[in-house]
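Researcher: Next sequence.
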Amino acid sequence: MRAERAAQKTASQSAKPLPMTGLRAMALDLLARREYSRVVLERRLLPLAESVEALARLLDDLAARQQLSDARYARSRVNVRGRRYGDSRVARELRQDGLDNDAIAAALAEGEDELSRCQGVWQRKFAALPGTLTERARQQRFLRYRGFSAEAIRQVLRGWIEEDET
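Model: Next structure:
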């Protein structure tokens, strides 16, 4: 966050772009804190770059050195966001960050099963099967908003999950 605020502050205070070494240092500082997709990192650094071509060369170099990886970013986001959200919501967020469908599918396949994640989210929020249709609809809406599939929601709310699986 601090590096992002510094980048925004530098960009807003002067129209003078950073030299290539400064831009590389800023990129490495951001990447040291957390993973970024190429598109998101480009979006953050573009106001500070001398030109779009120079920024593209820098990002290509970082990717060649394995310091910037969309696949690693996707796995990281699936691990973090997957604890609270379903596959469809996580996939939508990753598409917004510029990842292709193949990278998204690979990262989701490596992550935890959606059904068990849905069960965990439901357990933390509700912990009891719905007794009325109104309560059932409320629980379904909550899980649907979180991006879980209809099949996962149906199984969780019917109590079809085996106790030894969770």
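Model: Residues 162-166 have pLDDT under 50 and may be disordered. The domain at 114-158 is CATH 1.10.10 (Arc Repressor Mutant, subunit A).
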